[in-house]
Amino acid sequence: MDEPTSGLDARAGAIVMRTVRNTVDTGRTVVCTIHQPSIDIFEAFDELDFGGSQNDFIRQSNMQDLLNAMGSMFIAVLFLGILNASSVQPVVAVERPVFYRERGAGMCSAFPYAFGQAVIELPYVFVQAVVYGSSFLCISLSTLDSLELNAR
């Protein structure tokens, strides 16, 4: 039964559960869900299963672990992006007059200059990605191993 006491006051809920208890006493098995039962209704149950089977709980726990890992990865990538952007801003401020001077003299155009600035940052971004990726991989693998042990 799905929530046989929903919408009932305490007295009517107790009457319904007493009827359910009488059915159980005849030897039948009754499965029902009850949300926020009173203490009298709670004590009428012989066996309780909170939140489904253990496998459902482990699956929910695994999903929460996965969401936690994804959230931490998002925050770390956001931090790295802000860190990179804030470290580039002073360089851009210093390089801007040089670019305007060289462009005014006809020595370079915007695309090669921007391309050169992007290429010079690649080794730094690559090192950052390798350090972050390897540390996150180690954490993910250890979490995955613990999840597999919990699922057994």
TrEMBL record:
Transmembrane domains' residue ranges: 66-85
Localisation per UniProt entry: Membrane
One Pfam family here: ABC2_membrane
Residues annotated as domain ABC-2 type transporter transmembrane: 59-136
Keyword Zinc: no
GO molecular function, one term: ABC-type transporter activity
Domain of life where this protein originates: Eukaryota
Keywords per UniProt: ATP-binding, Membrane, Nucleotide-binding, Transmembrane, Transmembrane helix
InterPro entries in the record: ABC2_TM, P-loop_NTPase
Membrane topology: Multi-pass membrane protein
GO annotations of cellular component type: membrane
The keyword Aminoacyl-tRNA synthetase belongs to this UniProt entry's keyword annotation: no
SUPFAM superfamilies membership: P-loop containing nucleoside triphosphate hydrolases (SSF52540)
PANTHER family linked to this entry: PLEIOTROPIC DRUG RESISTANCE PROTEIN 1, PLEIOTROPIC DRUG RESISTANCE PROTEIN 1-LIKE ISOFORM X1
The protein, known as: ATP-binding cassette
Lineage, top ranks: Eukaryota, Viridiplantae, Streptophyta, Embryophyta, Tracheophyta
